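can u do me a favor
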């Protein structure tokens, strides 16, 4: 940025929407605007590729975005730390162990935390959320495990992770039978509840094909160092337990005085601005657009990115923000860890190697957009 700073934009978190903002402002800087990004982790993982990372399909660098390089490309200041409070009256964000950061415009994209209520002994398990720290925590857990895993959660994340673990065991064991009986998926209700019966048939077949045991309609109530106890009294033996169940909003939101929905997530308007706060935006899983509630899925954060970038630019110019209109139906591509994937779109479902190749292409292209940056930063306002 050249010239005097008129507007300080603070991005809290390195989520999918914020990396889009950084790239957009790097490609087309806004005169008079300075960006600051505060992030706990300097490498932002792309959630869609984490099961592939566990399976051994991807290397860590292939599914993480380099925030240091991306921030430099955007001409943004980068603060390595965790925001633990917002003072909307003073327009300041507090950062643990650091000086507060002032802002004129603020955007929050900090993800979600695990909701471990109802599961005693959850400290013995590895919660998948937050994804920003998942990989190092998983490697530490893996080194302590003898090879029997249980995955608590019957949604898309739990399903993909169970199959990814089976794929990892096969890869390390050197044979197709290396994973048999060593991974158990536990769903408190039906597997992939909310999808079609056809999608669930494909999912159950994929688990069986890859030697993953499945328990449905039996919720986990306790985790011990030896495994998982279920509501029925059944005990599933496992040296390592991963939890991919429903997530919660960050607890520090409650102390900010910012508007929240009934579950504690930030309450946003269709413009992605918080209710009653034109200067504060919230995107991704940490927020709910009250007029358009949607599942907590990465696809929405990705789609919000360009809208957020444009609205931050418009507000810096003193213009009104444009509304974000999320799609009602969205494509889910669920990797089965064996070179195939299940494609789900509304009432439609199909499976095959073509679906995995499609998913792999989409995921790799997304990460490359933020890691394979043009040399230098354009200063003429042109997009290239």
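np, heres the sequence
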């Amino acid at each position: 940025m050249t010239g005097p700073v008129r507007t300080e934009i603070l991005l809290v978190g390195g989520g999918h929407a914020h990396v889009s903002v950084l790239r957009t402002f790097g490609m087309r800087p806004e005169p008079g605007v300075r960006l600051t990004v505060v992030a706990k982790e300097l490498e932002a993982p792309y959630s869609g590729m984490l099961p592939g990372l566990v399976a051994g399909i991807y290397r860590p660098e292939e599914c993480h975005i380099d925030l240091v390089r991306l921030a430099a490309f955007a001409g943004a200041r980068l603060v390595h730390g965790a925001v633990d409070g917002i003072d909307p009256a003073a327009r300041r964000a507090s950062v643990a162990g650091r000086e507060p950061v002032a802002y004129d415009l603020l955007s929050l994209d900090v993800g979600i935390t695990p909701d471990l209520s109802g599961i005693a002994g959850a400290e013995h398990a590895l919660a998948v959320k937050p994804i920003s720290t998942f990989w190092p925590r998983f490697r530490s857990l893996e080194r302590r495990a003898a090879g029997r895993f249980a995955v608590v959660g019957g949604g898309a994340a739990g399903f993909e992770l169970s199959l990814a673990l089976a794929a990892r065991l096969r890869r390390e064991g050197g044979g197709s039978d290396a994973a048999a009986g060593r991974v158990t998926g536990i769903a408190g209700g039906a597997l992939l509840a909310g999808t079609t019966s056809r999608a669930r048939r494909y999912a159950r077949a994929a688990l069986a094909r890859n030697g993953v045991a499945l328990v449905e309609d039996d919720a986990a109530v306790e985790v011990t160092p030896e495994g998982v106890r279920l509501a029925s009294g059944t005990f599933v033996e496992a040296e390592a337990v991963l939890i991919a169940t429903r997530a919660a909003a960050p607890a520090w939101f409650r102390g900010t005085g910012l508007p929240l929905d009934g579950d504690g997530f930030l309450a946003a308007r269709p413009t992605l601005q918080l209710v009653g706060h034109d200067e504060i935006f919230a995107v991704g899983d940490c927020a709910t657009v009250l007029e358009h509630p949607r599942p907590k899925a990465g696809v929405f954060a990705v789609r919000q990115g360009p809208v957020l970038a444009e609205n931050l630019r418009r507000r810096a110019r003193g213009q009104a923000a444009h509304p974000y209109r999320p799609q009602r139906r969205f494509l889910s591509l669920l990797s089965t860890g064996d070179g195939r994937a299940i494609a789900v779109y509304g009432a439609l479902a199909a499976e095959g190697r073509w679906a995995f190749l499609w998913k792999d292409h989409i995921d790799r292209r997304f990460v490359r957009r933020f890691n394979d940056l043009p040399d230098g930063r354009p200063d003429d306002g042109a997009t290239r």
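The chain is about 30% helix and 25% strand. hope that helps!!
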